[in-house]
Amino acid sequence: MWEKEGVQDRAERDPLWKEIAKLRRLGGDETDERFPEIVADSWTRCLADYHLRPDRLPPATVLDRSEIRSLTDTYDELLAIVSPEVDKLFERLVENEFLVSFASPEGVFLLFRCGQKYLRDMTKCGVLPGSMWAEEQQGTNGVGTCLALGKGVIIAGKQHYGTAIRSLTCITAPVRNSGAIKGVLNLTTACSDDARTNRLLQDIVTRAARRVESSYFNHMHRHSILIHLSQAATSGDLAEEGRLAVDSAGRIIAGSPHVATLTGFPIDDLIGKSLDEAFDLDVPLCNIRPQKPIGLILKGKPIQGIISFPERLSRAPAGRPTVAVAQTNLSGFRLVEEELRIDPMTSMTLDKATRLLNARVPLLIWGESGTGKTTFARLAALRSFGNAGDLVHIDCATFAVQSAISPPVQRALLRDRACLILDRLEELDDNGQKALLNLLENDLHLGCGQKGVIALAATDLDEMRKDGKLRPGLLHRLKGGAIVLPPLRNSPDLEGVVNNLLTIELRHLCKPGLSLDNDARLLLLKYHWPGNMRELRNALRHAAILADGPIIRLEHLPVDVVSEIARKDLTARSQSEASRIEAALRYNGGNVSSTARYLGISRATLYRKIQIQKSRKSAQNASKD
């Protein structure tokens, strides 16, 4: 009724509202604008029940990492379903300045999607991941008032009780299950007085909440018979459907919140009834074909239904993505240093990486395939975080859009000391890049200063950015410090690397007495190793396994490696560089520019070396004549 009278009208007859009108004026609201009834009632609760003052509200409480982790674990199954919906909303609204979030029943933001630019504005208002917005603590606000009323609300601008957030508009919808509120979907944007736009946005967030409710109901009752109810035979949208769960005896045991809206009857009126009784079925339940629309009659009202039966095989919860993520404790990598030969150059590079990581500067490690990027990254993480740290390894080649915001990743990143390794970054598609960028912009603000990020790539990411294959924002996020691991062919001490890896392989194979003969050793030193450390290690393992006696000979090495060098004089060390250049030219199809880049030298230098080799061959042929 309060929409029909102004602030002054109500203040004249209501002492409490007189105080509220005074508080509004003190907050800079000189208008006689009418408040919606839900806002007026909320302000009354804030003043009379909670004893809050708008100008004296403290900033919203922000939970610490352990408290957030506890809540995330509590609502794990629900968050797995909400996360993709939050991501879809954010993608839909990303061109505008919106925060899309999901709050727990306690009013705590557990999912938080916001563009970097708008995030600064949110931070100034105290709207942060892990912040708590219960009405009894922060007064009238979208999340808190939605929880207090149990229904979606629009709180625009000066309708907020606290002065710190009066520049915002919050549009919310509750997510319910079994009669209880499980959380709140929230859209927050800059203050908007356009009531029509706000109503359209509320419809969007309400439909998203319905989809979450339907998916969560499906998951919670995945072992029951489900009845999908809708007005049309094939709605195609979970927001338009209600759900009923039926036990093996054919009795209704639960219903999703939207069932009451579809049928016009409270869910409690249906629970406990058999399907025959509730819908006037004239055929046994066992005779109804699953996944086929059927016409139902509920108390004279027609409605469409589809019956599905529980699957015998266990499946992942609806909405839970398959995540290409491995989480381990860094104590498992105590022996990682022996996997990477720490020569003086590598030691200097590792020290550089560790110092940057200690300052929590994102690292980008570039190197050809097989150069030891993953081992290097793990060792840098071990040195920076110690054995107590957690390592979260994401393979970007199999990265799903929802992976970055899935609860397993979020839980891992809530650990006290965690390092995120992003492997094969160059293979991440555009959707994955957007999801990863959202993760880096938002989730890593939790526990700021405790997280490390290391990205690994086998191609030039700057070239990918220039070609439009990599988002500039993502590259700039990851390229805090750049580390380049050189290819094995450029190693200043290739013989030392061979000896080191051979020792490791022999120890793993329990063959400590083996050694290389001169021909095998020279071949290994002349080969150009396009697969780098990985290829060398595999070749040594291959040879060690086949060697029956104490000596590794040419015949024990892989045939493809031997065939590259076989027609050369293996005892002529002076031909080593010529052999590498010739092999590299073959590998790059005779393209001089590609070969020069491959060898890490200029085209002019390569041409000069080729001409030198030609001159030597001519001189050798002339001496023979």
Features:
single chain; 625 residues; Beta-Lactamase; five-stranded antiparallel sheet; 24 helices; 16% strand; elongated; disordered N terminus
Report what the structure shows.
The chain has 625 residues and is α/β, with parallel strands linked by helices. The protein has 4 domains: 65-218, GAF domain (Beta-Lactamase); 223-308, Beta-Lactamase, CATH 3.30.450; 325-486, P-loop containing nucleotide triphosphate hydrolases (Rossmann fold, 3-Layer(aba) Sandwich); 489-624, Helicase, Ruva Protein, domain 3 (Orthogonal Bundle), CATH 1.10.8. A 6-stranded mixed sheet has the order 11-13-14-15-12-16, with helices on both faces. The chain has a 5-stranded antiparallel sheet with strand order 2-1-5-4-3, sandwiched between helices. It is elongated and about 110 Å long. The termini are far apart. Mean pLDDT is 79; it is low at 1-5, 312-324, 331-338, 444-448 and 567-574.
Task: Please indicate the percent range of residues in DSSP E strands (runs of 2 or more).
Answer: 15-25%
Largest sheet: 6 strands, mixed
CATH-assigned fold name of the largest domain: Rossmann fold
Summed over residues and divided by their number, the pLDDT gives a mean of: 79
Strand order of the largest sheet: 11-13-14-15-12-16
Q: Shape from CA axes?
A: elongated
How many domains make up the coordinates? 4
In the CATH hierarchy, what is the superfamily of the largest domain?
A: P-loop containing nucleotide triphosphate hydrolases
Q: What structural class is derived from the secondary structure elements? A: alpha/beta
Low-confidence regions: 1-5, 312-324, 331-338, 444-448, 567-574
How large is the count of helical segments? 24
Fraction of helical residues: 40-55%
Question: Which value, in Å, is the CA radius of gyration?
Answer: 33 Å
Number of strands: 18
How far apart lie the N and C ends? 114 Å
The CATH architecture name of the largest domain reads 3-Layer(aba) Sandwich
Query: Which class of the largest domain in CATH terms?
Result: Alpha Beta
